[in-house]
Design a protein that fits this description.
Shape: globular
Mean pLDDT: 96
Structural class: alpha+beta
Strand content: over 45%
Helix content: 25-40%
Strand order of the largest sheet: 2-1-3-4
Number of strands: 4
Radius of gyration: 10 Å
Number of helices: 1
Largest sheet: 4 strands, antiparallel
Order of helices and strands: EEHEE
């Protein structure tokens, strides 16, 4: 299954990255959030929310 990292910009979600391994994708999203100070979320290919990083 494919997992997507999305970033919130102006109250809209934009895909920043994707991967096959859920654990690695969640770690990468947390790293992006720490660097950018923005909200990130991880969703799967069926748009189910996996993780939300404020």
């Amino acid at each position: 299954m494919t997992y997507f990292i999305q970033c919130e910009i102006n109250h809209r979600w934009f895909t920043r990255s994707q991967g096959q391994n859920e654990r690695i994708v969640r770690i990468r999203a947390k790293q992006f959030a720490q660097k950018d100070q923005r909200r990130y979320r991880v969703i799967d290919e069926k748009d189910n929310l996996i993780d939300l990083i404020p």
